[in-house]
Specification:
By secondary structure, the protein is of the alpha+beta class. It is about 25% helix and about 25% strand. The strands form 3 sheets. The chain has a 6-stranded mixed beta sheet. Strands 5-6-7-8-12-9 form a 6-stranded mixed beta sheet. A two-stranded antiparallel sheet has the order 10-11. α3 links the parallel β7 and β8. α3 packs parallel to α5. The longest helix is centred in the middle third of the chain and has 23 residues. It starts with a strand and ends with a strand. It binds one DNA strand through loops.
Length: about 250
DNA sequence: ATGGCTTAAAAATTAAGA
C-alpha cells in the first residue's frame, strides 16, 4: 500500500500535475495541504475520473486539506475534535484497515509572533488528541506538512536556521512529543541521501542550489512502522514548470 | 535589501507562505 502527502499550494493551479502524478504512481491514499478552495469548488469530478474518492475540508484562499483514496474511506472526522479552530487543517478517515490523519500544521511566521504561539498551542492539542487516537486506532498514519524540520540533518544550514521558525527548539520538542506518543518518522526508517528536503523557497534559486528543509512527513504508529518497506521524496515534482514549493513524500507499506 | 517568488484576493497592491 502506497501512502503519500503533498502540499500542493493551490489545488486549482496544481491539478494537472497532480493528475499526471496520480496516473504514474497510483498511490492508494494521498493527503493534500494548502488546497486553498472552499468545498464547493473542490475538483471532485476530475479526481473521480482519475479513480480516486476525494474527501476535502477547505476554505477560500488559505489552508485546506484533502484525502484522496482508491478504496472507500469511512468514519470521516474534520478538524481536531474538541479544539475550536477556524482554520481547516485536519481531516481523518479509515481506509484499508488503517486510520489516516491528514494535517497542515500552522506555519508560525516568526518565533515572536501570535501565529507562532498559535502553532505551539495547536501542536499541543494535536498531540494530546493523537495520543488518544493511537489507543483506539493502533494502525495509525499521520501525513502532512508539519512545518517543522526535526533534526539538523533536515536543514540545509542548521546554524542559519537555529532558533528560527520551522527549526526552533519548542517546535522540535513538539515534534518529538508526537513521536514519543508512539509513532515513527517513516522517512528515517530507511537509509536516505544526505541533504534530503521536501521544501525549497521559490526565491534565490533555492531548489537548484538544494537550499531546503525537510518539513513534510509521514508518521506511522509503532504497530504500523514494521510494515513499511520504503520511503522517498518525489523531488522531481519540484523541478517542473510552475511547481509547488513542496515536493511529495511517499511511504510504501507491505 | 527581513529582500529575493508564488498564490489568492481583486483590479494595484496586500497578505501569507516558510
Amino acid at each position: 500500500m502506497k501512502l503519500a502527502t503533498w502540499n500542493v499550494n493551490s489545488i486549482k493551479i496544481r491539478l494537472p500535475q497532480l493528475l499526471e502524478w496520480l496516473a504514474q504512481k497510483r498511490p492508494d491514499a494521498v493527503c493534500l495541504q494548502e488546497t486553498k478552495v472552499d468545498d464547493d469548488n473542490f475538483p471532485v469530478l476530475e479526481l473521480q475520473a482519475a479513480g480516486y474518492r476525494p474527501l476535502y475540508f477547505g476554505q477560500r484562499t488559505y489552508n485546506g486539506v484533502a484525502l484522496l483514496t482508491r478504496a472507500e474511506a469511512t468514519d470521516v472526522i474534520r478538524g481536531i475534535p474538541g479544539y475550536e479552530d477556524e482554520q481547516k487543517r485536519v481531516l481523518s478517515a479509515s481506509v484499508d484497515g488503517l486510520r489516516i490523519v491528514c494535517t497542515y500544521v500552522p506555519n508560525g511566521q516568526s518565533v515572536d509572533s501570535d501565529k507562532y504561539r498559535y502553532k505551539l498551542a495547536w501542536l499541543d492539542a494535536f498531540q494530546r488528541w493523537l495520543s488518544r487516537e493511537l489507543k483506539t486506532h493502533p494502525k495509525l498514519a499521520v501525513l502532512g506538512d508539519f512545518n517543522i524540520a526535526p533534526e539538523e540533518r533536515d536543514v540545509h544550514d542548521p546554524r542559519l536556521w537555529e532558533g528560527r521558525v520551522l527549526f526552533s527548539k519548542p517546535e522540535r520538542t513538539a515534534f518529538r512529543a508526537l513521536l514519543d506518543a508512539g509513532m515513527k518518522d517513516s522517512f528515517r526508517l530507511f537509509d536516505q541521501p544526505e541533504r534530503s528536503f521536501t521544501w525549497w523557497d521559490y526565491r534565490m534559486n533555492a531548489f537548484k542550489r538544494n537550499l531546503g528543509l525537510r518539513i513534510d512527513h509521514i508518521l506511522l504508529s509503532d504497530a504500523l512502522a514494521g510494515e513499511a518497506t520504503s520511503s522517498s521524496i518525489a523531488s522531481e515534482l519540484r523541478a517542473v514548470e510552475r511547481p509547488s514549493d513542496h515536493a511529495p513524500v511517499l511511504t510504501e507499506l507491505q
